[in-house]
Amino acid sequence: MLEENEPGTTETRVRAVDRALSVVEALTDGSTRTLSDLATKLSVPKSTLHAILRTLESRGWLQADGAAYRLGVRSLLPGAGYLEADTVVSISNPILDDLVAECDETVHLGRLVDSDIVYIAKRDSVQPLRLFTSVGRRLPAHATAMGKVLLAQRTDAEIDAIFTYPLRVLTPATIVDREHMMRELNEIRTKGYANDAGESTLGVTCTAIVIDSGPTPQYALSCSAPDVRLTGAQQAVILNGLYRARQRIEEQLATSLPSLGAKPAAS
């Protein structure tokens, strides 16, 4: 069955597919949910949702856990396929190896998806005290350095279309009000990089810069360090390392995907 067009658009969506994808997306946080939980969360009748759940389970996208459901092993395949196909990820992988060796702190490649930043590549520091993250993890963009540096590439109107205020709180340092967020983004536009000072994880500071991958940048590069190790000298090492890594990524992007118009960054 086709769903009617959304008001003001010409897009037609298939309702059953839309609902099935909403189920999968509702479980990407690693949660386990019952039929009733999902029906309430997604506003879908239980009878309809039951058929969707059984179909997804039979195809391996979901796994039943008693009366509840969680993601099945087949849900791994699209993510792995995306990482294999994404040119920015493939170009960045060896450069991230060099960056983590240079900075000796955890480094990430992330992409802005709606109002979240999604980690799509990472390299762990060998330090015993380090930030725990995983590829595929999503965090609110407003609470992360990568998210903020990418939001700073958007207009205020575009940002207002993404968020509802007050913003979600992750720590006492998270920015939650519009005035503070817009002031922060203006500072990032001036500096050219963003910091997250305990806004997503207390005791950890993250520094991030944008990768120029097209008219509206979608990717960012970051390095995260515990505050107990972050001296002024180490912050300079991290920022310089990020700039050099970005230049290498953008130079290779300009060769691989000239239509993106990527330009080498200043060192």
TrEMBL record:
Residues covered by the IclR-ED domain: 74-255
Domain HTH iclR-type: 14-73
Keywords (A to Z) from UniProt: DNA-binding, Transcription, Transcription regulation
Pfam families: HTH_IclR, IclR_C
An MF annotation (GO) of this entry: DNA binding
InterPro entries per record: GAF-like_dom_sf, HTH_MetabolicPath_Reg, Tscrpt_reg_IclR_C, Tscrpt_reg_IclR_N, WH-like_DNA-bd_sf, WH_DNA-bd_sf
Full protein name: IclR family transcriptional regulator
